[in-house]
Structure formats: C-alpha cells, structure tokens
Amino acid sequence: MGFTSKIKTIEWTDNISRMIDQTILPHEFKTVDIKTCEEMFNAIKNMIVRGAPAIGIAGAHGISLAALELAKITSNKDEFIQLLKNKAEYLKSARPTAVNLMWAIDKQIEIAESTNSNIQTIVELIVKNGKKMELEDIEINKKLGDYGAEIIPKSATILTHCNAGALATVGYGTALGVIRSAYAKDHSIKVFADETRPRQQGARLTTFELTADGIDTTLITDGMCSYFMKKGMIDVVVVGADRIAANGDTANKIGTYTVAIAAKYHNVPFYIAAPLSTIDTNIKSGDEIIIEERDHNEVTTINGERVCADNVNIINPGFDVTPNELISGIITEAGILKPPYNVSIKNAFSTK
Hints:
- By secondary structure, the chain is an alpha/beta fold.
- The chain starts with 9 loop residues before the first strand and ends with a helix.
C-alpha cells in the first residue's frame, strides 16, 4: 500500500482536529489544525475536508470543539446543551447534501442530551465518541471493500467518478476501498478515473491515491466514459455516495447520473459503495435530497483564469441523483444490497 496506509485524512489529537488540506493536492501535501467550531465550518464549506464519510467525522470533531469552547463560557447545563445544538445546526449548514454530516453531528448531540451528568463529563464523552467514530470509519471501509471485491471480475477495468478514497474518508476509502481490496487479490486490475469537473477531484485526488498505491490508473475526461464503454474497455463502475434514499436513489458528485445512464445502455454493472451511515431512511426517494449549489467561480475559472464570457449564465449543482433502477447494487459494510432497495435497505438496518 502507498501513503494511504500511513496517513489519516482526519485525526483528533490534543483537542484539535488535524486534517489533510485537500484544496492544494496533488501539488502540495500538508495538514492543517482546526481548533474551533467556526474553523471546522469553514474547512467543511471550503472543501479542505471533503467526501461524505470524512465530512461526517469532521462534523463529529466540530461538535467536540464546540463542546470544549462552550464549557468555558457557561456552567449551566441546559444553556450548554442549547448552545451546543445551535452549533450543531450551524455545522450542518456547511454542506447540506452529505447526510453523514448530519448523522455524525446528531450522534454527538444524542450523547449530550442523554447523559445525566455535569458539563465536564458530557464534554469528555463527546470527545471520546468523536474519536471512536473516527477509528470505526476505517474498519467499516475495509469491510465494505472486501464485500465489494467479490463483484470485481479478474483483470477487470473499473471506472470510478470523483474521489471516494482514503481522502474522502478517515482512511482506505469506499469506492476506492473496493478497488484496493480487489487489487490485493488481483494485481492485474486497472482503473479509469473520471477527471470530475468542476473541482477535478478525480484528476487531483483519485489519481494521486491510486498511483501512490501502484494501481494501474488512466485519467479520462468526464465526457469519455460512453466511448470507452462502447469499445468494451470498462467492465464495471464503482462510485461513492453522499446520500442514499430509502428506495436506493443515490446522490453523488455531479456527473454520476450521466455515467450511470451510459453504463445501463452498454450493460456495464454500476455499483454504489457507501457505509450504512450514508443511507437516509427518513427520505423516501431522491426527490427529497437537497442539492448543494456551489460557487460559480468553480465553473468559470481554471487556475485563476476565467475561461468563459463575462456575461454568461452559470449553474453549478454539486451533486446529481442517480435513480435506483440504474444501480446494480449498493456495497456496504453489511454486504451488497440488491433491488428492491426499499426491502434490502430495511433489512440491512434491522440486522445492524
């Protein structure tokens, strides 16, 4: 394994959250220390940390930071919990699509509300739980990866979109976790990575991770997938997810839906790889998923230079939703969920 086995994307240490700055990869590799809840909001919003599972852990750490801050300004337990809940809603607003953020924050708030103890003990329990969730993430991804490796044919070429790797999680990855587990058994597998406009996560991050691990990786532009599928050069698609509805509809980085349509037309299996925490059973379908609209400069500007007319209109959704009928299976730490997803998802949570 390469750098991913040695370096964690995000880690709680000495009451700070230390994370890899993903905005400057692959040109520079450095970590930043997040010391306040406000700094965490900005880190999530500005994509210093990104990827649904990693964002979730960042949210958990953000509540830990908020708890440490609030314990210094109030000794009233009720006031402390209310202020903490306010911070929770603030952090959730940083990235509205990724449900892992809401899930992890809510887990932290549950501890605060259910603990019949003093503020200091609540803070200690929140910090401890945030660290526990961080450590569990890697084990979840390894389980998920091993399940996913079962559906990868020998010597397969796998297409992935965006970055669902170690950098999108605490470590190992979801879609790239599947690839890593498959590669451990079969060094002949290859990967095609979509560049992923407009922020180039596939080009900047996925190729960085996979080449570091010695996995044969080819970078293609987002519009090329149909061409290579028609030529029979792609055997399976594995992508991550930011939110999955109870019926299996899946939100992922913009462009994923296009890949899924192309895969369906060319009879290429299309899989989602995501932990159960990415499944939002409170929503019935993808129609209920909030799609984040991001800064228009992401589309108009490349390397600091504007590449389009000044008066052109811009729309920049960060995600799209792939309908469940285009999805061959959802790879989770509980196994591979198959259609009908409203049944398999329900069963996965009932046996969890």
